[in-house]
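Give me the fold.
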Amino acid sequence: MKYKRGDLVKHILEDFTGVIVDIQYLSSETGIEDVPVIQMYRADIHKVTWVMPSEISRVREDERK
C-alpha cells in the first residue's frame, strides 16, 4: 500500500483534494486478497468520503499551494 494516514491526496476524476484519515481492508468476493478502501477528509465540503486507491493520486510537494 503506497498510501498512509496523513497523506495529502487528490481525487483524479472529481478533482478534489483531501487528507487520508483511515485505511481499511475489505475482503474481496474471491477471498484471495483484501481490497483497500481509503477514507479521506474533504476540506471543500468538510466531510469524510470513501475512495478506492485507484481513484486517487498523491499530491507532490511542488503541487501544494
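The chain has a mean pLDDT of 87.
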